[in-house]
């Protein structure tokens, strides 16, 4: 093969500067997670297909990358599916393993498998790539990182408060107060209450799926879609005011209390929202705009209480989360409530880049380059180079006596701040000529003086 | 599904303490890599199968985990292979992608793909999991981490010197001088010279494969195997002294010079070894035992010069590497020499654990727990909790007013050093009762005083 090599669609390489940026995001999130008592775990990229299948419905199953069994996999293949060329039917018999498509299902599996060793409530965070056989498009990858934090084994709403404060801490640090963003909150119980209040309990999913599109298609289209789904006209009339709420928390909570006065589950949802808002408002937020959004309906397949979403203007969701009451039930551990959030590292990456919000990463790369003038000078420089390194300075010597211009270009391209030149004069005097590549200034320094520049 | 969940054979979960240990290894290696001017990159877990296939021979191809194409993959399947139930033949037509089995091939692909943006010589490091469909056994996993550093685009032996010094720096820090380990060096050109000198140039691979087993099976078995492979008896007689070399560098180099006096490639190899040893011995090593091992023959498929291996007594290789002159040739970029090493993180993990060499990771987890005595106390504590966190202290409040014993057990299990108790007395006095869980002592402190304990 001598074609120009490429990588699979929807995947990407990370160059040194891209790594520095991404590590900056991870490190910020990690530091905040730890401040809140979360502990890091990691699960394998590969899970048994049976663990992943059926957790998010058929659509999710299609998004799972399956791993072909090793060896003579056809010998155990489902004969009927093979004969009928039924790809979906064949899969389970030739692929036992798959790549996880999120970190939530592996976490649920981990909790059940290690339930006897875990102290609950368990606060864990996990930063790993996930894989989805999605159609690649701008900002959507087939391999991307999630940064999840979950608290499992406690239904206290203080956990929700912590997660909102974490979001506030992370984006306060990453956005440096230079970017507006909104943390929207809703509650699945309120959505259930609404369906109940308008007499359409069995159409909860249809209603919320339609409501969730409000931003994109507008009120009229939403109502049209609901009518098409068979929601009663009278019910729709009751629904309309929901879409026209102003941004006034107390008014809206009162409106909901009124609308849901006959729904037990709805009233419970309102109470939960009130509690969360009360705590957060008392404690205060640094830079987040927190708002109630009764149209927020993400993750309906598993969320049972609070729903959280973070948005920056003109960008898809950069963080989301919610409470789920039965994530581990699938694996045989019932009645364990959890709540979590997931920072979308790749989207946050793009937001910071678009808005020029990355710090400089100078110290991350080489700080000092010794120019190589030939064998004698090189031998003189080597011990000095290691003295620098042992003092914690990132340093290199150009590995051969190439032309000066080539070596200086190397220093420039690698963003190296100091270049050290040692010729016969310097060797005699026991000094180094040190050029600051940013200012262009040259100084004559001893190795000890050079080291102190980095203290 | 309500069976107890499990993970695929040869994979594992990492619990919080295991993560802390592994991150400690990664952080140590990273810091040293950066000191030597290496920059981090990351490549996708998935590569095109065509990129990976054929890089390490048929045996390697079998070890590759292939990813089943999405959708109706059978519609494009190789009809003949399907009919014949030929698994190997079918694979390429139903799996375009695969998981990388090392970081070297993806790096070569990366270099060729980005050759116009890269400044050579390029020092890159990469810490990522790799996947191999190997038979799982103690210390061998199907998903494990590699920590690679390579310098590409320079044939200077100073690069070899840097890599050996990196090994010395990393294990000096990780082993704290408490563990003996040996860095063995050889040169592929010397092995080629030996085959030439005994008149068996075409049997180089057989000879080196047999020699490599010396440790395990002894001299006689090695010679027997070679005789079986058709190596001439007279040649074998010449070979025998090689296996009986004492650990005397100068004597051994002289012996090799004598043996290889008629082999140009052999002499070149000896010269390279001499240069590397000279530099390293002049610069000195902190804790490594560096030795020449003419029987070291790893990576013969691609190494063309220096070969490096690090071993701790009674343990398989924990680090290995070498020089390759044509890694990127496969992807259309010829004549680029590189040299690299790979730390085997999982084996180093086990060595440190077996020898009790991990530091304590206290600050990594929660440092302060507020006991929750009820709503009133909780509301009083919340702002104090956030004051601690904002001061950079990892802190939590137990999320509900559970029994005291339960909360104290939680603190114990999570290794939390300070437990804060606030009842009505404390609220009145504006003080906190702080219990040191290690010493058992209790103090009455203000929140500011508590914060200063962590400065």
Automatic annotation (TrEMBL), chains A, B:
Major subcellular location class: cytoplasm
Alphabetical keyword list: Aminoacyl-tRNA synthetase, ATP-binding, Cytoplasm, Ligase, Nucleotide-binding, Protein biosynthesis
Gene Ontology CC, one term: cytoplasm
Catalytic activity, reaction form: tRNA(His) + L-histidine + ATP = L-histidyl-tRNA(His) + AMP + diphosphate + H(+)
One GO BP annotation of this record: histidyl-tRNA aminoacylation
Top EC class of this enzyme: ligase
Domain Aminoacyl-transfer RNA synthetases class-II family profile as annotated: residue spans: 1-383
Family: Belongs to the class-II aminoacyl-tRNA synthetase family.
Protein's UniProt name: Histidine--tRNA ligase
Source species of the chain: Vicingus serpentipes
């Amino acid at each position: 093969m001598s074609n120009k090599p490429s990588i699979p669609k929807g995947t990407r390489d990370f160059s040194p500067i891209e790594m520095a940026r991404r590590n900056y995001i991870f490190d910020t999130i990690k530091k905040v997670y730890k401040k809140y008592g979360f502990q890091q775990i990691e699960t394998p990229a590969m899970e048994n297909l049976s663990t992943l299948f059926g957790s998010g419905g058929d659509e999710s199953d299609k998004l799972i990358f399956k791993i072909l069994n090793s060896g003579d996999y056809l010998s155990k293949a489902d004969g009927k599916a093979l004969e009928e060329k039924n790809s979906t039917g064949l899969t389970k018999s030739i692929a036992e393993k798959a790549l996880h498509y999120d970190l939530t299902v592996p976490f649920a599996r981990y909790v059940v498998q290690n339930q006897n060793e875990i102290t609950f409530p368990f606060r864990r965070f996990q930063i790993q790539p996930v894989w989805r056989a999605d159609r690649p498009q701008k900002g959507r990858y087939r391999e991307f990182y999630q940064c999840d934090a979950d608290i499992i084994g406690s239904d206290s709403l203080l956990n929700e408060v912590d997660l909102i404060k974490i979001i506030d801490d992370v984006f306060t640090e990453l956005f440096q107060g230079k970017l507006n963003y909104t943390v929207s909150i809703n509650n699945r119980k309120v959505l259930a209450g609404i369906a109940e209040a308008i007499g359409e309990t069995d159409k909860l999913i249809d209603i919320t799926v339609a409501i969730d599109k409000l931003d994109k298609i507008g009120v009229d289209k939403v109502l049209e879609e609901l009518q098409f789904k068979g929601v009663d006209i009278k019910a729709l009339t009751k629904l309309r005011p929901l879409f026209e709420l102003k941004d006034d928390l107390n008014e809206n909570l009162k409106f909901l209390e009124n609308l849901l006065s006959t729904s037990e589950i709805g009233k419970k949802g309102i109470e939960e929202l009130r509690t969360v808002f009360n705590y957060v408002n008392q404690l205060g937020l640094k830079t987040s705009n927190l708002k109630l959004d009764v149209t927020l309906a993400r993750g309906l397949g598993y969320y049972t209480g609070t729903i959280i979403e973070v948005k920056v203007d003109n960008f898809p969701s950069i963080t989301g989360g919610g409470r789920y009451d039965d994530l581990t039930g699938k694996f045989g551990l019932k009645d364990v409530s959890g709540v979590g959030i997931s920072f979308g590292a790749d989207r946050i990456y793009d937001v910071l880049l678009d808005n020029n919000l990355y710090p400089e990463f100078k110290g991350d790369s080489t700080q000092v380059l010794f120019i190589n003038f030939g064998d004698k000078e090189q031998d003189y420089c080597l011990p000095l180079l290691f003295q620098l390194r042992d003092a914690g300075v990132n340093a290199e010597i150009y590995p051969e006596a190439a032309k000066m211009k080539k070596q200086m270009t190397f220093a420039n391209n690698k963003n190296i701040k100091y270049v050290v030149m040692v010729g016969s004069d310097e060797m005699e005097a026991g000094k180094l000529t040190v050029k600051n590549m940013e200012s262009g200034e040259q100084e004559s320094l001893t190795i000890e003086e050079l080291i102190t520049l980095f203290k």
